[in-house]
Specification:
about 400 residues; alpha+beta; FAD/NAD(P)-binding domain; D-Amino Acid Oxidase, Chain A, domain 2; nine-stranded mixed sheet; six-stranded mixed sheet; 10 helices
């Protein structure tokens, strides 16, 4: 019987465990998580959106896995009773400069098989009466879901061992592999690294070359008071700037009936520094001394300052939102939990745009799986499972 150890109980790690079990019921699978519960970092702190695949380069791993992952995710939610809704969204152009980019998005969506179409201001007003723009895309395939609920269901269904409160501190190349954790010593034939914000460090501990570094970017959100929730029926997004991996400040109805707006995208002062005053000195020094970050910052410092300004000024944040929804006011917003995106950055200062997998000796490392990884998780899990089972034969 082959034994596989998965590091990280976020949605990608748990989906990988589930897909391994679906492929081979005889595998011995252990998922190791340093926190006391599953899905506490990127998975449990995102906006809860089921992405359609409209943003991603046709033929890329993101495009393929997002489309297939969306299908698998919806099937999984129906099968195991996880709350979800395919509600659709609008991507709104607010100035003429954005109209060509909007049409590029539409074409990309068509090539990726997304159900989407251009709409005018009258139809935009019917779909989202309080949104303002000069043109829009209606993306029918987008939706919302309870990703923490997905994680709980995956954890219950993969049929293996889940160890929480166990941080991996060493991976030793013995036969079988020896994995030292803060809770126990484990043995396994293969290790799969789905550690998210810590994935590059786990890769180093496994003795595999790390071609990039994780740089944490914090997304800051606000919760909209009940009195103003009617201002957004479903999802309202801006036209994204193709120079950046972030989609911009948007309005998102949540599966629990609430409404959130955001995020800003600012450098986090630590890989798990979620609060305004939180920081991790070692994490921060590692980021600031990395040549890739210094090169990135030298090119995009103006954008960075704008994001920081919105981070500290609620008025500036609302001004950005008012381009899409003029009726939102400062008094409508309450602070909401922040999320941190594990963005992989190359040493030349370029962002790793696509999903990235690195195979080592008896190991596989998921080194870049930001948005839409939650939507794509079951497809990513199947991809990883196929690679691992092939390596074990």
């Amino acid at each position: 019987m082959k034994s596989i150890i998965i590091v990280g109980a976020g949605i990608v790690g748990l989906a990988t465990a589930f897909q391994l079990r679906e492929a081979d019921s005889k595998l011995e699978i252990t998922v190791v998580e340093k926190e006391q519960a599953v899905g506490l970092h990127q998975t449990g702190r995102n906006s809860g959106v089921i992405h359609s695949g409209i943003y991603y380069l046709p033929g890329s791993a993101k495009a393929r896995n997002c489309r297939e992952g969306r299908r698998l995710l919806l099937d999984f939610c129906r099968r195991f009773g996880v709350s979800h809704e395919v509600c659709g969204k609008v991507i709104v152009a607010t100035c003429r400069d954005e109209l060509p980019r909007l049409q590029t998005l539409r074409q990309r969506g068509v090539e990726n098989g997304v159900v989407c179409r251009s709409i005018g201001v009258d139809e935009l007003a019917e779909l989202e009466p309080h949104a303002r723009g000069i043109g829009a895309l209606h993306v029918e395939d987008a939706g919302i879901v309870d990703y923490r609920g997905v994680c709980q269901a995956l954890a219950e269904q993969f049929g293996g061992r889940l160890m929480t409160g166990a941080e991996v501190v060493e991976i030793v190349d013995e036969r079988p592999l020896r994995i030292e954790t803060t809770l126990a010593t484990l043995r396994g034939d293969y290790v799969i690294n789905c550690a998210g914000l810590q994935c590059d460090r786990v890769c180093e501990r496994a003795g595999s070359p790390v071609p990039l570094k994780i740089v944490p970017f914090k997304g800051e959100y606000f919760r909209v008071k009940e009195e103003a929730r009617h201002l957004c029926r479903h999802l309202i997004y801006p036209v994204p700037d193709p120079r950046f991996p972030f989609l911009g400040v948007h309005l998102t109805r949540m599966i629990d009936g609430g409404l959130e707006v955001g995020p800003n995208a600012v450098l986090a002062l630590g890989r798990e520094a979620y609060g305004k005053a939180d920081f991790n000195l070692l994490d921060l020094l590692e980021t600031l001394s990395y040549s890739g970050f210094l090169r990135l910052a030298s090119r995009h410092w103006k954008m960075g300052l704008q994001e920081m300004h919105r981070s500290w000024s609620k008025k500036a944040f609302v001004k950005a939102l008012n381009r899409l929804c003029p009726e939102l006011k400062e008094e409508h917003l309450l602070p909401a939990p922040s999320g941190i995106r594990a963005q992989a950055l190359r040493s030349d200062g370029t962002l790793e745009d696509d999903f990235r997998f690195v195979e080592g000796p008896r190991s596989l490392h998921v080194l870049n799986a930001p948005s839409p990884a939650a939507t794509a998780s079951l497809s990513i899990g199947k991809t990883v499972a196929d690679k691992v089972l092939k390596a074990l034969t």
